[in-house]
Amino acid sequence: MRPEGRNLQLIKGAHVIDGRGGHPVEQGAVLVDATRIVQVGSADSISVPEGAHVVEHSFPECTVLPGLVDAHTHLNMPGDGRGLMEVMEEPDDLLLLRSAVNADVALRSGVTTLRDNGGRGETTLSLKRALEAGVSAGPRLNLCGWPITITGGHCWPMGGEADRADGVRTAVRYAIRQGVDYIKVMATGGSTPNTFPFLPSYTLEELRSIVEEAHRFGKLVGVHCRCTAGVVNVLDAGADMLIHCTLREADGSWRFRPDLAERIAEAGVWVNPTLHVVRSTYWALRHRREAEGLSPELDAGMEAAKKDWEDQLENCRQLIKAGARMVAGGDTGWSYFRFGEFAYEVEALHLAGVRPMEALLSATRDAAASLGMADLVGTLEAGKEADILVVRGSPLDNLLELLNVEAVFKGGEKVV
């Protein structure tokens, strides 16, 4: 029972989605004590301890749900179409400041927890220290610091180049010493110039060394992988998350492998398909063409982005049918995917074949589990952190209602 005079908060809405997979609670409420959730249920079932003062937040035409968890972001990146090499020419202090702004935008949009998938040097680690000190505002951060990549590999300017089994083990140990939360690895090339997205980069021996060393210290491993051969290596190495997970041959052609999809599902590895980042490129170029026209080169790029979006959506659809465990993570900040628009990634998963509730779970409960944070966030349950999003309307009717933010609470503190 609370001492008299201490405040509780009661957050009431037309619907409460607790993130556990059940039906929404109509005319529901969440009771919060300081930073933690105390009770969740119908408003008339909530029992307030005698003598406690209750601050009531009423949202009569809104849905109350867990704060969103974006499992894939790049805080250094501006989301304005600029590529990695151009952005990495900027000094660390500018990258840190942009990261702080992006974090604040993400929080105000309802993302109360995010995983950063790679920044330069210690810029994101410095931001986390600033958030913990109350110097800046933002979501709970789950950081790799920088991705581990082969010499000259994808995202090499971020500072994580390492080769050979002994070299990558050292790289994992160094990252852990610097305070990272998990290990990110580039198992194939990507959009970085002179890398090879449809060929494996690390050998199986190197990948196993990374995973073994990370797991030895209790760290999860997420692996960037853009081709079929790379996916096979990642599964053989025993990593925890397949990022992108595009099943493409060495020549770049798409070829779905039902046997491999079945293996992905059986392994229980999390799959982060990063769908909207491709669509955002298509949308941006299409808008530019309508406004001012495009050069033949950019027009071809727009058509390529459209086809890539359609192919990637179908790839994800087939993985879902096979039973793969999907988690929402936008690659937010990359290409034209701006912070504050994570709802589009959640909607894209619905377009790939999951029901609206499953799409919400992929961005709350399941995303938190994939980050190893399920005991802290991701659902509205007694004892968990009071990270709460309130949106107008019902996201189960239209997932893009997630963009209509009415209020955000992080650890019980009202942000918006």
Gist of the model:
The chain contains 12 helices and 15 strands. The protein has 416 residues and is an alpha/beta fold.
Question: What does the secondary structure layout of this molecule look like, with pairings?
Answer:
Blueprint: E1 7-16, E2 25-33, E3 36-42, E4 53-66, E5 68-73, H1 84-87, H2 92-108, E6 111-116, H3 123-132, E7 140-143, H4 164-177, E8 183-186, H5 204-216, E9 221-225, H6 228-237, E10 241-244, H7 258-267, E11 270-272, H8 276-292, H9 296-322, E12 325-326, H10 343-351, H11 356-362, H12 365-370, E13 388-392, E14 405-410, E15 413-414
Parallel strand pairs: 1-4, 5-6, 6-7, 8-9, 9-10, 10-11, 11-12
Antiparallel strand pairs: 1-2, 2-3, 4-13, 13-14, 14-15
Helix pairs in contact: 2-3, 4-5, 5-6, 8-9, 10-11
Could you describe the 3D structure shown?
- This protein is of the alpha/beta class.
- It folds into two domains: 7-67 and 378-414, Urease, subunit C, domain 1 (Roll); 68-370, TIM Barrel (Alpha-Beta Barrel).
- The protein has helices at residues 84-87, 92-108, 123-132, 164-177, 204-216, 228-237, 258-267, 276-292, 296-322, 343-351, 356-362, 365-370, and strands spanning 7-16, 25-33, 36-42, 53-66, 68-73, 111-116, 140-143, 183-186, 221-225, 241-244, 270-272, 325-326, 388-392, 405-410, 413-414.
- The strands form three sheets. A seven-stranded mixed sheet has the order 3-2-1-4-13-14-15, with no helix packed on it.
- A hairpin with a 2-residue loop joins β14 (405-410) and β15.
- It is globular, with a radius of gyration of 21 Å.
- The model is unreliable at 1-5 (pLDDT under 50).
